[in-house]
Please model this.
Amino acid sequence: MSKVKVFIDNREVIVDEGTTILEAAKKVNINIPTLCYHPDQKIKGICRICIVEVEGQKNFSASCCTPVRDGMRIRTNTKKVREARKNIMQFILVRHDGDCLTCVRNGNCELQKLSEELNIKEIKYDRIVENLPIDESNPSIVRNPNKCIKCGRCIEVCHDVQGVGAIDAINRSDDLKILPGLYEKISDVACVYCGQCINVCPVGAIYEKEDIERVWDVLEDKSKHVVVQIAPAVRVSLGEMFGFKPGSIVTGKIVAFLKAIGFDKVFDTNFTADLTIIEEGSELLHRIKNGGKLPMLTSCSPGWIRYIEFFYPELLGHVSTCKSPQQMFGALTKTYYAQKFGIDPKDIVVVSIMPCTAKKAEAVREEMNSSGYQDVDIVLTTRELGKMIKESRIQLEDLEEVEFDRPFGIATGAGAIFGATGGVMEAALRTVYEKVTGKELEKIEFTALRGIDEYKEAAVEMDNMKVKVAVVNGLKNAKIILDMIKEGRADYHFIEVMCCPGGCIGGGGQPIPSTNEIKKKRIEAIYNVDISYAIRKSHLNPVVNKLYEEFLKEPLGHKSHQLLHTHYINRKN
Amino acid sequence: MNLQQIVSDAIDKKGNTKDKLIEILLEIQSRTEGNYVPTESLKMISESLDIPLSKVYGVATFYSMLSVKKRGKYAIQICNSAPCYISGSSDIVKIFEEVLGIKMGEVTQDGMFSLEYTSCIGACNLAPAVKINDKVYGNLDRNKIIEIIASLRKGGE
Model:
């Protein structure tokens, strides 16, 4: 590729032909402001905040979408540029409900930050914020169109990454709005509640339905026994909200905090992840032995489940009937745990802390009540946990690390890796291999299945059987594999699907920003958590084994079917 | 002809692929009484072309040549881009509203005329200008507007 020489603020930069001004400027640490730009998305050129002056040219150029030319002389910091940026910013601000103090993204808003950086002191034009209704039609996602700055990031992630297309830009120019197509509410369309739109939104136009107050309330209610579970991905990301580096593991601090604010028991979803492996692994072997529907698809990810229910209901027979670890946890807490510790299940409140917005909707699915009560009562996202910590004024960094409570706090490394793409499959293989062959699996790390690649596969020899598996993350990739199944081209026994890119560590409830770079760090941390466990295979979890002994009796047995398995709904049309 | 028939004919004629979306929408509009693309047709197109409904609706509402609302036999599109605006397009709006007895966005009771805005139609030299179906009328004033409406009412062009 040929090189071009350009001058940015009088500094010489040599870059490949085709490089944008923005990228070239970055090379010499010249920081041009951006707003619609997102590192993991296509260049949009919508907001125009990144304009610069180019010598010999009357108009400004948007640096994000203007490729450099040889000899180009660019000025990024002239009075003219600064004034123009301020003006553009004001055009955006007049249409933005700028009530920052009560905004969900206060302190973590790209528009707020940019406004400060550009030194905006007034808005010269009349404000034209329409008082449009806030869409709170569903258990997971809230949309406030009055905050929307129409950058288009949510549309891109919904269409191009998830292949769902629940929302799009409707009308044009002044009248442009981002809407669920023909409809007013998200609940009217096939939205899977993955929340990926939230993670890319620069402002507070999309966010999770907040359930924090409900948790504070039950914690003050002396008649309630309040139990909490924490998903594997939460512990490797929460720290980001408190200045820890991405990839910091703050498990012990989270446990300490939850105990400090009054939870009766602090348990680990990794425990029911281990249990899921036993049930799901047994289901896989049962299907293989008895000519059941193959490939079997994983069922832990509620956004993925909604996707297949909406778009490929004819393939629901391929989905494992196992409930997700969150739901298994709820069902067991209100039965086994309640009986064992003599607590009336009607007084138990199960709270989950999840990296996920779809988990909120999963918890309120009608069929999720096999314990006789709603299995899981309240679901918080990682971000909501962060907000509770802030509200409590407890300093996360000062907290001494504390261990999970017993019995449901005992887990293995296999449960821990559920939070990353490929993790469920790796955990399953560690167990299935030993169940099938009766031999110890020596090399337990299936590195081919790790990392944020969209599509991974492996084949594992188990005695005379070659078990073929695949792993996909992001729903657009799920669609590819579903089409393969439909056409009979998916030559696999078992396929792991996680709704969100990167797996749960990239879930819609995670700290923002949640870029690919940050996700990679979280994934690394997940595998470090795995290594930190003495036991790294689910079937060796002593509490899981005790649970079968005392209560469930056998995998896929009567009790398991009643409490740990579920069914799905055709949501097409 | 019912809508389903119109839609399937349009798809057959233009081709059942994503890139034909706009052509299909225009075809449906031209064959639908009311000079518009009914929203029910969008669902059929979405399924047939495998394009999310939100995207189909987004396209149908983006282009001013397409409408998802019932329009008159003569859809009067008043340009509100800058050159027409500074040549008094807002007065033109008032005159049309007065002469036809409807507001912007409405259709006359006899279904003959409807009023809407459009972005630039490339007739800046004739500003203020309007487009009525496929024809552009420029340098408008009250008398000209009355004349145009009367002539269209009579069935002339």
